[in-house]
Structure formats: C-alpha cells, structure tokens
Amino acid sequence: MLNQGRWANAVLYLVEHGGERWVVKDFAARPWLVRATIGRLFVAREHDALHRLQGIAGVPRDPFRLDAYAVAYRYVAGNTLTRSTLDGRYGEFFSDLERLVQQIHSIGLVHLDSRNSRNILVTDDARPVLIDFQSHLGTRRMPRALRRWFEEYDMAGVYKHWARRSPDTIDAARLEHLQAMNRWRRFWILRGYLGVRKSRPLE
Ligand SMILES: Nc1ncnc2c1ncn2[C@@H]1O[C@H](COP(=O)(O)OP(=O)(O)O)[C@@H](O)[C@H]1O
Ligand SMILES: [Mg+2]
C-alpha cells in the first residue's frame, strides 16, 4: 500500500506485474455511497486527464481503467516533494516544474491542487512529476480571463513551494505573482467565515 487515504480518498497500491511497477488508485474499499459517487467520478476524471496529457514528460505514463472504481498508471520511482530535500538543488527543479505546469496548461487543462506538495513527485534524477488530477478542469471552452485566472492559481502553487524551499532562487516577478494570489485567497477565506475575521499565518 502506497497511501491509505481517508474515507473520501482512494487507496493507492504499488503493484508489480511482469517485472513492471504500476500504481493502482482504487475506491473499491470505500463505503458504497462514496465509491458510487465521487469514486466513480474521480477515477474517470483522473484517467481522462492523464490520457490527455500522455506525451508530456512529468506526468505518470500509460493510464488505464481497471474498472469503474480504479485507475492504474506507471509507478514513478522517487519521493514526494513533501519529503524530498533535493540535496538543495531546488532552483533547477522548480523551473522544470514551472515549465511542466505551462505544458499542461497549453494542452488545455488546469490541475488545481498544486499547492499540495504530496501531489508533486521528485524522481530519482531530480525531475518533477505532477500527480493527482482528480480535481482538474478542462480549459478549452472557458472564457479566456477565467482560464488565465485558473492557470495563475496553479502557478501560484508552484511558487508557494519554490518560495518556501528556495527563497534565494525565486525572482521578484514570481514572488509578486504568489503574493497577488495570496491576496485573493485571504479574501475568499475570510468570506468563508461569514465576515468573522481570523488571523491566519501567511502562506
Ligand atoms: N505514480 C506514482 N508514483 C509514486 N507514488 C505515487 C504515484 N501516484 C501516487 N503516489 C503516492 O500516493 C499518494 C497519494 O496519491 P494521490 O494521487 O495524490 O491521491 P489522493 O487523491 O488521495 O491525494 C501520493 O502523495 C504519493 O505518495
Ligand atoms: Mg493527492
């Protein structure tokens, strides 16, 4: 088992078959209501996104559906960004990650969960791989301004990790992008509390 997850998450398994390693992301173990609703939906969404993105280095390869509740794709040897230190070689890693997110955007998709460092893998040769596309959106038919806003939201996730882990290698323009998005985030988080102000640490 790679990841147990909570009640609304899939269970992730590492499966070895014929000498090849695969990840199986599976909602089968979840209560039927979860499995039959978000399970089905997320598995279909994850498969669709990965399928569309094949050909980009930096996205798990060879996705396929096992059944209605499970999707499989190639295992990526490495670590999550949460746990990797990259031996301090962050600058190159984050500009690679920025390029990867731009490529994903140019295909017509936004990830929307790049702020979570468990969704970013660091391969053994220090390359970024983005995983977990179950909350993605297709952007092809979006109004241009909305598409741009979602793309900026994704990129702010990249810059959040970059600024935290390697403040010396991120430039002023990228920091300003991150700060502009954080102003938005504070606005909608406050609205979520129905006007009750809570002080939150800056992210
Ligand atoms: N292709 C992969 N290679 C290696 N580890 C993976 C891979 N896919 C997922 N994982 C591991 O499983 C965890 C959860 O996967 P994820 O797709 O983000 O599921 P969830 O939707 O539950 O967040 C990741 O944080 C990572 O540790
Ligand atoms: Mg995830």
Summarize the structure in words:
By secondary structure, this protein is of the alpha+beta class. The protein folds into two domains: 11-74, Phosphorylase Kinase, domain 1 (2-Layer Sandwich); 78-192, Transferase(Phosphotransferase) domain 1 (Transferase(Phosphotransferase), domain 1, Orthogonal Bundle). It contains four helices and nine strands. The protein has helices spanning 32-53, 90-107, 144-165, 172-192; strands at 11-17, 20-26, 64-67, 70-74, 78-80, 109-110, 120-123, 128-130, 137-138. The strands form three sheets. It has a four-stranded antiparallel sheet with strand order 1-2-4-3, covered by helices on one side. Strands 5-7-8 form a three-stranded antiparallel sheet. Strand 1 and strand 2 form a beta hairpin. The longest helix has 22 residues, at 32-53. The relative contact order is 0.11. The structure holds adenosine-5'-diphosphate and magnesium ion. The site of magnesium ion has 4 residues, from loops. The site of adenosine-5'-diphosphate (ADP) has 18 residues, from strand 2.
Just name the CATH architecture of the largest domain.
Answer: Orthogonal Bundle
Helical segment count: 4
Biggest sheet architecture: 4 strands, antiparallel
Percent of residues in beta strands: 15-25%
Element-level helix/strand string: EEHEEEHEEEEHH
Say how many strands there are: 9
C-alpha Rg, in Å? Answer: 18 Å
Could you name the CATH topology of the largest domain?
A: Transferase(Phosphotransferase), domain 1
